[in-house]
Specification:
heterodimer; A: mainly beta; six-stranded mixed beta sheet; 12 strands; about 50% strand; B: mainly beta
Chain lengths: ~110, ~120
């Protein structure tokens, strides 16, 4: 079965600094990869997704992610973080039965 | 707004009781999923329905059950509730079934269940 690992439970960055959230997956076939963001008290909002093609995908709110098959990774990046980006971020991999497995999440704190 | 609607948003109930959570998927979506999010377990997949039929089961307890109705809305029934069932329950929907299609899952805002 597929699995997702987000190695960082909590990350703190200063506003305006760059951000990279790590995601590693385990899946035998071509993965379908997603990043979701969850603000406090809210549901999960899709940031971006990778199905095929260009390995660098652009998402909403200025986020991007790069699929690296050789490293089994799908790291999320943003060049300049805003205070409103503080939230929990989940990486997920699509499964054959479409149940979608999520990582444990990375909580992002943004310092002024 | 994802288009997925869940009710109630908040629910407090006592141990041993039974509750029903309701979900209306996005217009046109045939698949409905239920997830449980708790502090100790993270986000856990419970069950998936596609066009009224159960398609996948995850870590769903026997005390829990779900169904998807002909109008495609879904209900998650939680019975003999325990303190540990306190969590945020998400419903999600997607157009199709099957990971190979790579279709996207959209989440509702969740139903907060507190068992006291």
């Amino acid at each position: 079965a597929q699995s997702v690992t987000q190695p960082d439970i909590h990350i703190t960055v200063s506003e305006g600094a760059s951000l990279e959230l790590r995601c590693n997956y385990s899946y035998g076939a071509t993965p379908y990869l997603f990043w979701y963001v969850q603000s406090p008290g809210q549901g999960l909002q899709l940031l971006l997704k990778y199905f095929s093609g260009d390995t660098l995908v652009q998402g909403i709110k200025g986020f991007e992610a790069e699929f690296k098959r050789s490293q089994s990774s799908f790291n999320l990046r943003k060049p300049s973080v805003h205070w409103s980006d503080a939230a929990e971020y989940f990486c997920a991999v699509g499964a054959p039965n479409n149940d979608m497995r999520f990582g444990a999440g990375t909580r992002l704190t943004v310092k002024p | 707004d994802s288009g997925v609607t869940q009710t109630p948003k908040h629910l407090i109930t006592a141990t041993g009781q039974r509750v029903t959570l309701r979900c209306s998927p996005r217009s046109g979506d045939l698949s409905v999923y239920w997830y449980q999010q708790s502090l100790d377990q993270g986000l856990q997949f419970l069950i998936q329905y596609y066009n009224g039929e159960e398609r996948a089961k995850g870590n769903i307890l026997e005390r829990f059950s779900a169904q998807q109705f002909p109008d495609l809305h879904s209900e998650l029934n939680l019975s003999s509730l325990e303190l540990g069932d306190s969590a945020l329950y998400f419903c999600a929907s997607s157009l199709r079934w099957g990971g190979s299609s790579g279709n996207t899952i959209y989440f509702g805002e969740g139903s907060w269940l507190t068992v006291v």
